Amino acid sequence: MNRLALAAVLLLWSFAARATDVPEFHLAIQDHAYQPAELKVPAGTKVKLVIENRDASPEEFESTEFNREKIVLPNSTITVYVGPLKPGSYRFFGDFHQDTAQGRLIVE
After folding, report:
1. Which residues form a coiled coil (predicted)?
2. Domain residue limits at 46
3. Does 17 fall in a domain?
4. Residue 63 falls within a domain, yes or no?
5. What Å distances lie between residue 96 and 13, 28, 51, 93, 108, CA to CA?
6. Which residue of 5, 23, 85, 101 is 20 to 30 Å from 15, comparing CA positions?
């Protein structure tokens, strides 16, 4: 039983170590706009986007160019993993406020 518990602990530690290796970037939604509107991330690397909605209404973080879609409830935070992506510029937007919630992921 002790070997099984040790194996489980090592396996969990391995997953935790990998999770911390993913670069993390932050976006905020405030007044139905993304801040910053452009976010630079490394090419060829999986990245973690932490998106905080500071508004009192929900928003939907969406990108058809890197195929992500997720609801962000009012005054809450979500995590979205993206990539690895090739160098380029990828559009994302807020589906509920497309007139103002626009952004670009610049992959370099």
Report:
1. none
2. 24-107
3. no
4. yes
5. 39, 15, 15, 9, 29
6. 85
Q: Is 73 a domain residue?
A: yes
Domain with residue 75: its CATH number is 2.60.40.420
**Measured between alpha carbons, how far is 32 from 7 in angstroms, rounded to an integer?**
47
Instruction: Say whether pLDDT at 12 is over 80.
Output: no
pLDDT band at 7 (very low <50, low <70, confident <90, very high): low
Chain centre to alpha carbon of residue 49: 2
> What are 106's two structure tokens?
């610049």
Residues 6+ apart with CB under 8 A from 67: none
In terms of Cα–Cα distance, which of 41, 59, 57, 70 is closest to 102?
59
Q: How far apart are CA 25 and CA 43, in angstroms?
A: 14
User: pTM of the entire structure?
Assistant: 0.80
Mapped onto helix, strand or coil, the DSSP state of residue 31 is coil
How does residue 31 score in pLDDT terms, banded at 50, 70 and 90? very high
